[in-house]
Amino acid sequence: MKLSKSYAILTQNNSNTDQLVQNLLRNHAVPGLTEFQQLDGLLFSRSEINRYMDEEERHDIKILTKDSEQALKTMSSGEQKKALLNYLLDQDPDFIILVNPYDNLDVATQAQLKEQLQDIASNKIVVQLVSRLDDILPDTTHFFKLDGESLHQYESPDAFWEENKTESINFNGTIPPPLSPISIDLKELVSFKKVSVSFDGRKVLDEIDWTIKKGEFWQLIGPNGSGKSTLLSMITGDSHKGYGEDLTIFGQKKGSGESVWDLKQKIGYYTPAITNKFRGYHTLENMIISGLHDSIGLYVLPTDSEKQLANEWLHLLNLKNRKNDHFRDLSVGNKRLVMMARAMVKHPPLLILDEPTAGLDDSSANLFVALVNKIAKESDSTIVFVSHRKEPQLDPEYIFELRPSENGSKGTTSSI
Questions:
Q1: Of 12, 200, 226, 237, which is most buried by a Cβ count within 10 Å?
Q2: Is 167 left (phi over 0), alpha (psi -120 to 50) or beta?
Q3: CA distance 354 to 258
Q4: What is the CA radius of gyration of the chain?
Q5: What is the pLDDT of residues 393-406, one digit of tens each?
């Protein structure tokens, strides 16, 4: 008999999610979830999409897209998840396990998927493994928390929400000043004027007007494929699409002979993928000092003033006692904080944070956002924060939103 129950399991960055999922799918005994030993379940996750994508690419076996000419890898994240969900529902399992179902989706697609999952949960058992409280479906009946491999069950929904409610976080101390300030005598750091961009004849950006001034705090939003990455790559100098357009970066018009290296010297950039480049045995102290030299690792003897600066940052992050620990041994959340300090150590005139909280649990995300807010208030660095998710604690001054249309995305500016 199929029961209409909905289970929420709040995961953290230390949770052994894979083991729990496999135990449920293989009908192994799980305390508090023993009824699943008699049921057949299927998995809705990013890893499943990657598995089917691998089958399609390696063996030309189309499973999720058998009724479509389009390859799975060419679909957007939203289209891929829709294809997987339809495939799972066609098999009519007793229960479906959802692992962070809204990751990598824009706000509108998240809302559409949540509505669909709510409908599914009304007549099928749903097990939600989510790292964010906002992702839990309404009318959820059973609540758990996964700490490492330990699964804790709550006696009531009220007990769950009370224990896991998010609170404002503050860092003690002030942002350490740079050793050598980068002087920029400009009010406008970035200026797009009627900038349009096309790829293979398809217009992606349509007459974008966006001016970023010194000291401002921006959030850049827009659905998948709206052109956010294209905008960023033109600012950082990683795209040639700005040539021939009215685009000015740090007072120099694109294509006027500007040096990409000089450009990058004025920009701090962080995206979680950068973290994967640091695979060696780098101490936390050396990680932050390496930001002064723009190097992957530290290959010069640090000066006393560089060490002192690094330790001031570690003190701010409550990591001073771990300065000789290896970066690779940190939790995911603490790695992000150290990488943020590394990006900010020179106080770059422009700091770009590209999906910096992706994959973090609520606690780690709140901590990271608190650090961003503090940097915005206590430094002269201009911040551009890019995110699919609306971080509730984030405090930007302005929002630049890309809205797709048939002729490419339009840009709109709003003040908070």
A1: 226
A2: beta
A3: 24
A4: 23
A5: 899 999 999 998 88
Beta bridge partners of 268: 351
Distances (CA, A) of 22 to 18, 98, 258, 322, 398: 6, 13, 54, 35, 44
Whole-number Å distance between alpha carbons of 326 and 281: 6
Compute the distance between CA of residue 230 and CA of residue 241 in angstroms, rounded to an integer: 8
Q: What angle do CA 148, 274, 15 make, to 5 degrees?
A: 5
Q: What DSSP designation does 129 have? A: E
**Residues 6 or more apart whose Cβ sits within 8 Å of residue 189:** 212, 213, 214, 249, 250, 349, 350, 382
What digits encode the pLDDT tens for the residues 189-245? 999 999 999 887 788 999 999 999 999 999 999 888 888 989 998 998 877 776 778
User: Both tokens of residue 116?
Assistant: 């669909």
pLDDT in tens, 355-384: 999 889 999 999 999 999 999 999 999 999
* Nearest-angstrom CA–CA distance, 130 and 136: 7
Out of 49-63, 75-89, 134-148, 174-188, which region has the weakest mean confidence (pLDDT)? 49-63
Listed in sequence order, the residues at least 6 apart from 23 whose beta carbon sits closer than 8 Å to its beta carbon are: 29, 30
pLDDT exceeds 80 at position 291: yes
Note whether 257 and 141 are within 8 A (CB).
Answer: no
Percent share of the chain, pLDDT over 70 = 97
Give one word for 173, left, alpha or beta, with left for phi > 0 and alpha for psi -120 to 50.
Answer: left
Q: How far, rounded to the nearest angstrom, does the alpha carbon of residue 157 sit from its chain's CA centroid?
A: 28
> Using CA atoms, how far apart are residues 278 and 285, in angstroms rounded to an integer?
14
pLDDT at 257: 63
Note whether 210 and 413 are within 8 A (CB). yes
CA distance 221 to 401: 5
Angle among Cα 67, 70, 73 to the nearest 5 degrees reads: 120
The Cα angle at residue 121 between residues 120 and 122, in degrees rounded to 5:
90
Collect all residues with Cβ–Cβ distance below 8 Å to 155 and sequence separation of at least 6.
none
Locate 321 and state its tokens.
Answer: 């006692």
Are 338 and 327 contacting, i.e. CB atoms less than 8 angstroms apart? yes
CB-CB contact of 102 with 114 (8 Å): yes
